[in-house]
Design goal:
This protein has 125 residues and is mostly helical. It contains 5 helices and no strands.
Length: 125
């Protein structure tokens, strides 16, 4: 009777993968298009942390970050989703539409505003 309870437990709760198995699965699932997106996100987050570390008026930088992200998203929505003028193909997600939207979000919410904040902190510090 105990073995029966254990088999039902195993059936409902899958076993966890080891670190090596997880890394192999990640290498298989990661496409060549995804590598530049990962590199750019890493570089821009380093820039953002450096900017907030260096600049004294952090509130002003945060307001600049939110306003530039909001303005960029407004135009991105019109051009990417409404007019369908171009496509992003990071190949991070399986659904092509969601993948396209993720590429737009990375572009307009991460890359452009983080670069604006970095420029402001470097030239106005």
């Amino acid at each position: 009777m105990i073995a029966h309870k254990f088999t039902s437990f195993v059936r409902y709760y899958p076993t966890y993968k080891t670190y090596k198995e997880t890394m192999v699965d990640m290498k298989r699932s990661m496409s060549r298009n995804a590598v530049p997106y990962h590199i750019l996100v890493t570089i821009h987050f380093i820039q953002l942390f450096f900017s907030f570390y260096k600049y004294k008026n952090k509130k002003q930088l945060f307001i600049l970050l939110l306003s530039s992200a909001g303005l960029a998203c407004l135009f991105e929505f019109l051009i990417l989703n409404y007019l369908r003028a171009y496509q992003y193909k990071p190949k991070l997600l399986k659904n092509p539409y969601h993948d396209n939207v993720l590429g737009g979000i990375l572009s307009q919410v991460v890359y452009i505003p983080f670069t604006a904040v970095t420029g402001k902190s470097l030239y106005m510090a």
